[in-house]
């Protein structure tokens, strides 16, 4: 039982810190950066999450495109506020 508790404590100690503790810019600042790329767009989804492809924490936004069924998927660096990814997603990609 003690060994199991020790292993569990060790596993938690090795996990990276909370994702939200890794952001210097606010959600509102990141949203402003994302919305500046899509004229008239609006945020559909937003999350501060780890991008498992790059192993970086990013603000991730799906932004609606007026007059289109597509979404603009935009990732913003939570430390600098710069856009690090900007891709178009069609309905078949969701």
Tell how many strands the DSSP assignment holds: 4
- Assigned CATH architecture: Roll
Task: Report strand %.
Answer: 25-35%
Number of DSSP helices?
Answer: 2
What is the count of distinct domains? Answer: 1
In the sheet with the most strands, the strands line up as 1-2-3-4
Structural class: alpha+beta
Largest sheet: 4 strands, antiparallel
CATH topology: Nuclear Transport Factor 2, Chain: A
* Unreliable spans: 5-16
CATH domain class name: Alpha Beta
Query: Termini separation (Å)?
Result: 44 Å
| Gyration radius, in Å | 17 Å
Percent in helix:
10-25%
Shape: globular
- List the secondary-structure elements in sequence, H or E: HHEEEE
| Mean of pLDDT | 84
Can you put this structure into words, describing what you see?
With 94 residues, this protein is of the alpha+beta class. It has a single domain (18-93), classed as Nuclear Transport Factor 2, Chain: A. It has helices at 2-14, 27-35; strands spanning 42-51, 56-64, 71-76, 83-89. A 4-stranded antiparallel β-sheet has the order 1-2-3-4, covered by helices on one side. A hairpin with a 6-residue loop joins strand 3 (71-76) and strand 4 (83-89). The protein is globular and about 35 Å long. It starts with a helix and ends in a 5-residue tail after the last strand. Residues 5-16 have low confidence and may be disordered.
């Amino acid at each position: 039982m003690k060994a199991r508790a020790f292993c569990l404590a060790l596993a938690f100690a090795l996990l990276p810190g909370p994702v939200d503790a890794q952001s210097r810019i606010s959600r509102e600042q990141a949203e402003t950066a994302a919305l500046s790329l899509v004229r008239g767009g609006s945020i559909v989804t937003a999350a501060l999450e780890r991008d498992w492809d790059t192993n970086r924490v990013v603000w991730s936004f799906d932004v609606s495109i007026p007059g289109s069924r597509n979404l603009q998927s935009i990732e913003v660096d939570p430390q600098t506020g710069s856009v690090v990814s900007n891709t178009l997603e069609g309905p078949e990609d969701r």
